[in-house]
Amino acid sequence: MRGEPGETYWERYESLVDEQIRRATAEGAFDDLPGAGKPLALPARDDEHWWVRSKMRAEGVSTDALLPPSLRLRKDIERLDDDVRDLADEAAVRAVVADLDRRVVAFLRAPTGPRVPIRRPSADAVVARWRAARTATTPEPPAADPTPARRRWWRRR
Fold it and tell me: Is the model's pLDDT at 87 over the cut of 70?
């Protein structure tokens, strides 16, 4: 069971896959691969969900869904002004704030996850900031020309 003379240990016991890899390496099939010589993007050591995060990043999906509820609500409160910036009227702004407030109250009744201080959003404060942002970005209409328009001769009669 020694094998052929001059045959190494790996040549005697290599699997079919190992044999194909060895042949491809000898033929130079792996020489010009993209990314050759670049470091691998390996996950953090303590991250057990690294594959989920990398798949979500590859698909362009936000990883906020993986956060605990308390941190997710905290992020939603921080982004509230950006979320309501493009809304058309005050009723829509108040509806978004009311929905977030409902979620915050539900969390405060039965908190789960890490204890993070969360305040309920104030609809009046958000509306005031929304109005200030709209007046800052809305250009003022041009002033009316003080000279009256000439009346046409056929309109005089």
Answer: yes
